[in-house]
Amino acid sequence: xxxxxxxxxxxxxxxxxxxxxxxxxxxxxxxxxxxxxxxxxxxxxxxxxxxxxxxxxxxxxxxxxxxxxxxxxxxxxxxxxxxxxxxxxxxxxxxxxxxxxxxxxxxxxxxxxxxxxxxx
Length: 120
Hints:
With 120 residues, this protein is mainly beta. It has one domain (2-119): Quinohemoprotein amine dehydrogenase alpha subunit, domain 2 (Lipocalin, Beta Barrel). It contains no helices and eight strands. It is globular and about 35 Å long.
């Protein structure tokens, strides 16, 4: 199954308490296995376009199943990339990710709110 989403993303630097929020222009979810898959996210920001690729997998945290995402982000101008991770929460057909992002030696908390626009 493939699904398309729209949404909003926010980053907050832990040391500076500044915040950047952007509208997500494209998110593609590709289910690869029960409870897992891949998210490809494109985000234009005031600092350039970011591409985020995450591998989502199911976890068992005691009583209830949860999902974790791990992957990389990249931006072409100037060229750089780094790691990111998140917990994935689902409510109906919407998704919410909350996690950690590393860029230029700085740690960020980041979250993204996604809602479906199309499913194939």
